[in-house]
Amino acid sequence: MNDHVTASAAPDTKGPGFRHELFPYQGETAFLDGAVSFIKDAVAGSETVLVAVGATKQEVLRQELAGTDAAKSVTYLDAAELGRRPGRLISAWADRITDSTAKGQPVRGISESQWTGRTPGERAELQYYEWLLNRAFTAAPAWWLLCPYDTTSVEADVLQTARSNHPLLRAAQSGPNTDYQDGPYPFPDLGAPCDPPYQELVFHAGDLAQVRDKVTGCATAHHLEPGRLLDLLAAVTEAAANSIRHGGGTGTLRTWTEQDELICEVRDTGHFQEPLAGHLRPRHDQNGGRGLWLIHQLCDLVQIRTTQDGTTVRMITALS
Amino acid sequence: MRSICSAIVVCSYPREAFSVSALEQVAGVHPHHAGRRMKVPDFRMFCVGKDCWSVSGVVDFDGAAAFGTAVRELLASASTLRLHCHDLLLMDAAAMQTLTDAVLSIEGRKVLIEGANPTVRRNWSLAGYQVPQIPVELVP
What interface predicted TM-score (ipTM) does this complex get? Predict the structure, then answer.
């Protein structure tokens, strides 16, 4: 595969809307060629430039851009922190795009997700949020996100999923990505709670205190720090309240631990169709719609599966 | 009862004369409890000074309606209502919405939330309410 990209190969940046482009490359030199030309084009067009890559890549980019006009124009973001909680990714980008477009500046971003050291659950959610970006920014003003993938180190299945999640492909001939799958998203199965047996509580209206008692019992048995316990209780309360309000008036809480993580799962018979629910920062005057948002902000990882058969919300908190 | 005098008042409620829900509501507005233990209310709210009420426990979807009713009643006669929240553990999205609806329902009213813990403060901000349009202020 020819991953070398030059400025001349870049598509027109002035088109409206969101451009979400996969950039497969081989090795550091190819990365620099593609990233630097992308950044220099953006700076020449007075666009805001945001770069979320690992620390090593960040350093080589800084060195490569040193002494150029672009050097002071790039805002570097902590890719590890951004990707640690995938449920917060969309709002993190949205906040920055809003700030920039308020000044009349289009935005270009480079986002290289960190795939190593992630749990299978984190990896699956990160892949889903890459796909969800396409839905989140359909109405965005000029905003172009380049997602580099090092084909020499990224696992084949990760790259294959990336090909399905990006509408555009940056290669020798940049343009539409024929592998792109425009939904519905093929969620991986969550799997069953692991051994030892999980604890379960069926709840109804008036039972939220019992729900919290159950979570507290499980969390304290595993020495979860009090501040984090409060965050978890707030999240589980929101999920359970959603079940009571929107999920048929009742729900089921399950709690268990798995590989140093405390998992709280709330299931009900409700169903929602808006994939962006809970991913965009609420306005002060909006009525409702804050529960899922708070859950994403309070938990380390959130996995949501909603079908006609019901909705499952898994809230995962690291125990160490 | 407002704590404007140095007195101890015991309010007696025979169990056989009241429903469980009525007793729970009554417990919610008394800071202390004597006698045989009953279910602890999720949140308690009682007066600790002029236009200043203590809120403790958890105000969630289950208790949001009662909380909203209480706040509206208090705001009917107070331009600024102070909620002493040092012992408030959590306030969920439903309760936050109820509070903002209540304070916005009467023009010119304001609520001060005092001593809220970091989780309550952060969730208030995350929920989008920490803006000038919402006359609720979180203070130390």
Answer: 0.87
